[in-house]
Amino acid sequence: MKRKATFDKRVLAETKEEVVFREGELVQVYRNDLDYTFKTEHKLLPKWSFPRRIVNRFVNSYTLATLAGKPISGRFSARRLRQFTPRVGTTLANEQAAFEAQLAQKCTESREEVVMGGVSVGDSMGAA
After folding, report:
1. Nearest of 76, 52, 74 to residue 65 by alpha carbon
2. Are strands 81-83 and 52-58 parallel, antiparallel or unpaired?
3. Which side of the chain, N or C, has fewer Cβ within a 10 Å radius?
4. Contact (CB, 8 A) for 88 and 73
C-alpha cells in the first residue's frame, strides 16, 4: 500500500486532475513501445494512433473501438490516451457530430423509460 500511495502522489503531482473521457468521444492511443527503440525505421513512425472511440470505462482504463465500430481487444489506461478533436468541416467532424447526437438521443430515451418505470398509460389508470 505504501508504494501505491507514493505512486498516486507522484501521478497527481504531474497531472492536476483526473482525465475522464465520455462514451463516444474520440481519442488517440500513445504507442509507448516506440519510446525505447533504436531502430532507424521506427524513429519516424507516428507515436499516436488513428482516432478511436471510447466504448466503456473501467476505473482508470477504457475499452475502445475503431471508427467503423469494430471493438479493439484489451483495455487502455487513461494515461496513454489523449482527446482527438477533428477539424471543423471535415467528414470525420460531421460523422462525430451525428454520432454524438444519436448517442444523446439514446440517453434521453433510456432516461424517459426509467422515469416512466416501464408502466404504460393504460396500466396507470388502474383496473379497479
Report:
1. 52
2. unpaired
3. C
4. no
